[in-house]
Amino acid sequence: MPLSEQEQRLLDEMERSLYHNDADFVATVGSQDSRPNYRWIVIGVLVGIVGIVGIIVGVASQIIAIGIFGFAIMFLGVLFSLKRSAVPSAVHDSHSGRPHQRTGFMDRLNDRWDRRQDERGH
User: Fold this and answer.
1) How far are the Cα atoms of 15, 64, 83, 119 from residue 36, in angstroms, in the given order?
2) Hey, which residues does 99 pair with through a beta bridge?
3) Most distant CA pair in the chain: distance in Å?
């Protein structure tokens, strides 16, 4: 569903305000050229589940070492899930040699912002 004219103006105003007031944040977030590696996420979730089972077994058997080991395994699973691998999000366009971005919502907003800035001469 497309945005109404009022919503679009409000979004544009918020975007300008963000770029104007917090340029460092925009530069940090905008420079991120990777996306999550879903393989790491799935492995992390599975390892985390094994760790939770270890914690439950440790509590049920009243053996502290098994519970601590289960917690450590669960913690490693969380680390695996949060790990971000540098998977490029841009594929080079064969005609122009420029990166051809995936057409996600944020990519479209960034492209529109760049076009506006170029039109204004910034």
Assistant:
1) 25, 35, 8, 33
2) 92
3) 70
Separation of alpha carbons 84 and 41, rounded Å: 9
User: In the predicted model, what is the mean pLDDT of residues 83-104?
Assistant: 51
Q: What backbone phi and psi angles, to 5 degrees, belong to 100? A: -100, 110
- pLDDT, tens only, 7-64: 888 888 888 777 777 766 666 665 555 566 778 888 888 999 999 999 999 999 999 9
- Whether 100 contacts 93, CB under 8 Å: yes
This prediction's pTM: 0.44
How far, in Å, CA of 88 to CA of 23, rounded?
Answer: 24
Query: Within 13 Å of residue 7, how many CA atoms lie on the same side as its CB?
Result: 4
